[in-house]
């Protein structure tokens, strides 16, 4: 046997690899230690949340080049202080808001179909990513997402700022038969979404749950009882295709990013 064919290992390594139980125990210990290292520091932070159920916002502060704190109301939409008081009145740039009923239904379809496996929603603060996708993502943009859709694998492009980039018709064609729009795409065809109605009853229950999340719940001042009660009627006649398009068009245009502001602190 040549040196190239010789397998170098220690007796300790051999004993671990040949003992399934020992390998399992050591793996569990390694995972536990890694988890503790990541989780324990969170208990020493004054606040790891962004929002309280009463609509107040706290935690992260963003500052301009002069060190002045940017009011959180400029980052997160607060109906109490905003010029636009309702979800229907909300305009892009008013601040991060929860998803509207149809958008929330589209997000559920997005998750169900595993779209997050190929499309991340997290633009990292690197120049090449900013040049391609736009301003890097900030924590508040995901505060109402349960679960988060950050992702890390990009078989397809990041979609954190896809909202408003393409028309509804472009999205419809792309979702139905992706290669008709992007010939090199490996994305599956989702033509069947056009014949699938949105489940209004399930949507209303989802909205109710969103107001009861243990962290960053949607304030009842936004998801009001009236809005939840009318959710089913608001999506009457809408398809899952309409819902996914509405969801995609809502991504990335909530915050009006200003020059000279450090959004990473």
TrEMBL record:
<dbReference type="InterPro" id="IPR003468">
    <property type="entry name" value="Cyt_c_oxidase_monohaem-su/FixO"/>
</dbReference>
<dbReference type="Pfam" id="PF02433">
    <property type="entry name" value="FixO"/>
</dbReference>
<keyword id="KW-0479">Metal-binding</keyword>
<dbReference type="GO" id="GO:0009055">
    <property type="term" value="F:electron transfer activity"/>
</dbReference>
<protein>
    <submittedName>
        <fullName>Cbb3-type cytochrome c oxidase subunit II</fullName>
    </submittedName>
</protein>
<keyword id="KW-0812">Transmembrane</keyword>
<dbReference type="InterPro" id="IPR036909">
    <property type="entry name" value="Cyt_c-like_dom_sf"/>
</dbReference>
<keyword id="KW-0472">Membrane</keyword>
<keyword id="KW-1133">Transmembrane helix</keyword>
<dbReference type="GO" id="GO:0046872">
    <property type="term" value="F:metal ion binding"/>
</dbReference>
<keyword id="KW-0349">Heme</keyword>
<keyword id="KW-0408">Iron</keyword>
<dbReference type="GO" id="GO:0020037">
    <property type="term" value="F:heme binding"/>
</dbReference>
<feature type="domain" description="Cytochrome c">
    <location>
        <begin position="101"/>
        <end position="252"/>
    </location>
</feature>
<feature type="transmembrane region" description="Helical">
    <location>
        <begin position="21"/>
        <end position="44"/>
    </location>
</feature>
<dbReference type="InterPro" id="IPR009056">
    <property type="entry name" value="Cyt_c-like_dom"/>
</dbReference>
